[in-house]
Amino acid sequence: ALILETLNVRNYIVHRRLMNACLARIGKDPVICYQVLKSLGHLKVNDKLIIDKMVEFLAIPHYGLVYYALYGLAYSGVQDCSVHLAMTQHIRHPDKWVHLQAIRSLGLLKSQCSQVNAQMLNFVASVQDEQLIYESLVSLYHMNPDVQSLRQVIVKRKFHEHSNQKIKDIALSF
Predict the structure, then answer these.
(1) What is the rounded CA–CA span in Å between residue 131 and residue 164?
(2) With contact defined as beta carbons under 8 Å apart, do 104 and 140 qualify?
(3) DSSP characters for 115-168?
C-alpha cells in the first residue's frame, strides 16, 4: 500500500484490489488495513465502491480501524453529506483519539452539510476537554458554520475569556 502510495498509482482496479486485500486481513492483521486506508486516502481515491467500503469500517468496533477509516476518508477529499454524517457519529466516540480524528477529518473536508455543522455545534456546546474544544473550534472555522449560533455557544461557554489562550484566540476569530 505504501509503495503504491509513493508511486502515486491512480488506477481504480489496483485500489479495489488493495481494498480487497485489506478486507481479507481485518481479523488477522488490522495493521495492514491501517496502512491501506491511509494510503487510499493519500491517493485521493474517489471510487464510490471504495469510499463505501471505507465508510463500512466506521461501523467496526475496533478503534484503530475507525481511526484510519476517518483518516482515509478525510484525505480522499470525499464531499458526500451522507459520508460526513457517518463520520460525525464518531465525534463522541469513547476513544479520545477517534474523537479527535473525527473532528479533524470533518474540518479537513470543510464539510458544508448543515446537519454535520449542527452536530458539531452541539458537541462544542457540551464538551469539557480543552483539546476537544480547541480542535472542534478549529474544525468549525474551516467548515463555515452558522456563525450566529456558534457565537452564542462561545458567549454562553465564555470561550472568549477562557484561560487556555489557544481556545480564547480561536473563539475571538468568529
Answers:
(1) 10
(2) no
(3) HHHHHHHHHHHH---HHHHHHHHHHHHHH---HHHHHHHHHHHTGGG-SSHHHH
Cβ–Cβ under 8 Å, residues 2 and 35 = yes
Residue 11 C-alpha cell reads as 488506477
Band of the pLDDT at 81, cuts 50, 70, 90?
A: very high
Measure the CA dihedral 98/163/122/127, to 10°: 50
Q: What is the pTM of this model?
A: 0.93
User: Could you give the CA distance from residue 103 to residue 91 in angstroms, rounded to a whole number?
Assistant: 6
User: Which residue reads 464510490 in cell numbers?
Assistant: 48
- pLDDT tens digits along 26-66: 878 899 999 999 999 999 999 999 999 999 999 999 999 99
